[in-house]
Amino acid sequence: MSSRTSDCLEEEDGEEEEEEENYNPTEVKMSQIVMPCHSNHRQELSVGQLLKWMDSAACLSAERHAGSPCVTASMDDIHFEHTISVGQVVNIRAKVNRAFNTSMEVGIQVNCEDLFSDRHWRVCHAYATFVTQRTSTGQKVTLKPIVPVTQKEQVEYSVAAERRRVRMVHDDIIKDLLSNEWVQQVDSSVGPSAVAAERTRVESVELVLPPHANHQVNTFGGQIMAWMVNVATIAASRLSQAHPTLRAIDMFTFRGPSQVGDRLLLKAIVNNAFRNSMEVGVRAEAYHEEGPNRHINSAFMTFEVLDDGGKPRTLPRIRPEPLEGQRRFQEATARKKIRLDRKYIISRTQGEVPLSVPWDPTNQVYLSFNNVSALKMLAARSSWRLSCEKDQVQLYTLEQKSMLSFKIECEVDVPAHRAFDLLAELSNRPSWDSHYKKCELIQLVDNDDFIYRVVTPSVRHGAMGSPTAANQAKGILQDFILLASKRKPCGSGDPYVIALRSVSLPTHPPTEGYNRGEVLCAGFTILETKDNKSLISYFNQASPEVLPYISTDIAGLSSSFYHTFCSCSQYLTRNRL
């Protein structure tokens, strides 16, 4: 939550300006001026208050689409980029990205406006999942599908399926990581100056009154989050003996409802302190009079303490309690690893991620997410330009800053599901693609993700764009280590997806006699068309190692793309049944 600069303001506004104006029936806009009653001791908007506004706007958007009462089911990671001061305006936009059967994803964009300088900047971006409440007869409400119109809406709609996939395996990722040897071996021994975790423990009880409830008489989800932030801040202050700044809230799920009259017991403790940040765990339980406690929610929040220059200060170490404290200490280390993976792989724009991200079973889910979502984003671009066409096989190009991408597209008389099965078997590609000399499966990750080593002709010593000439020139070949991620349609109108990107494996370093090439984003989308046919599109964000294979086609000097796709079509037709 560093100070704002004009450079970052211009960068962040740029993306919004590119999006065309379009009416979205689910969009809700909320503007709030920050008053002293909304602020903390630093005259900055309290994060708890911001979460209440965000949840309120998102709920209104979800109910506008569902036409029935909705409740917050979960919230993805939230990273707070900037603070908001008293007197400034918070502008919140929420709209439904995609509706599944009974749940929907709502995207929330929070921007700040300075009324005196006319500056705008982004504060945070979040994704919330809402579910409809059952009818009076106990039946679930089936949601109508969202129809994306703009390019941005199409991207969000497509990638929402991948985000949902990550949410569903989130708990499994933690469990798998905790079983990893390096997490089990984390040294929790600290020096005598360490602060006992017990000193940071906070317990607080809140009585749920009518002003804390929503229009369904349930405790407002945003209010619960605000109370949780409050106790977490106190716990963080006890460790640092300073005023901490909330940087991020991990993905969390509401486990059950709470009503007016409930007592909410809020517990917080510092789980682990790293060099410049600390993780605080918060648990919310509800009880009514003498009834048993019900676990409502748990969340993990990351705090920093900033010095006068706005830089994170070094924090004291924490001394965990035996048994349960040790468990929380290790789990916090695992979650830090997951946060770094997300920040490194998912949160960045595609161009900022290095080509070959190191493959690690603990970051498998996020690499797979990045792989598929990057291809979906590339496919959703609206500025593709037709470069050439031959017998209904079309070659398109897309120029983005310093990046050139190409798309080859044609329709084949093969059912989409069968084309998907055949093309997903990458080991068979050398039989129809002359650019693949060899393709071997080196690791079966799971049913949807595979790692291959691909050998292709080098073009560095041959004629540009001529693999045949390259084969005759000193016999130097290129190899690629590729992660292949395949996805079946999540809903009607979704394509089958086969996404490819480079990864690096310690077991397969670059070898003598091969030029190690890299692929940033490539793969197929397969869309079912009428008469049981398929529209097959191949995409590639051309890296320097890939561009020579297609450069003469783009320039119109050859049509090797046509012959390759014809060969692909014949391969699919031969194996149609």
Automatic annotation (TrEMBL):
Its EC number is 3.1.2.2. It is found in: Cytoplasm; Mitochondrion matrix. Keywords: Cytoplasm, Fatty acid metabolism, Hydrolase, Lipid metabolism, Mitochondrion, Phosphoprotein, Repeat, Serine esterase, Transit peptide. It catalyses: butanoyl-CoA + H2O = butanoate + CoA + H(+); dodecanoyl-CoA + H2O = dodecanoate + CoA + H(+); tetradecanoyl-CoA + H2O = tetradecanoate + CoA + H(+); hexadecanoyl-CoA + H2O = hexadecanoate + CoA + H(+). Pathway: Lipid metabolism; fatty acid metabolism. One of its GO terms (biological process) is acyl-CoA metabolic process. InterPro entries: Cytosol_ACT (IPR040170), HOTDOG_ACOT (IPR033120), HotDog_dom_sf (IPR029069), START-like_dom_sf (IPR023393), START_lipid-bd_dom (IPR002913), Thioestr_dom (IPR006683). GO terms for cellular component: cytosol; mitochondrial matrix. Residues 384-565 form the START domain. Pfam families: 4HBT, START. Gene3D superfamilies: 3.30.530.20, Hotdog Thioesterase (3.10.129.10). The keyword Repeat applies. It comes from the Eukaryota. Residues 8-22 have a biased composition (Acidic residues). Residues 24-136, 198-309 form the HotDog ACOT-type domain. It is an enzyme of class 3 (hydrolase). One of its GO terms (molecular function) is long-chain fatty acyl-CoA hydrolase activity. Residues 1-26 are annotated as: Disordered. Has an acyl-CoA thioesterase activity with a preference for the long chain fatty acyl-CoA thioesters hexadecanoyl-CoA/palmitoyl-CoA and tetradecanoyl-CoA/myristoyl-CoA which are the main substrates in the mitochondrial beta-oxidation pathway. This is Acyl-coenzyme A thioesterase 11. It comes from Astatotilapia calliptera. The lineage of its organism: Eukaryota, Metazoa, Chordata, Craniata, Vertebrata. The gene is ACOT11.
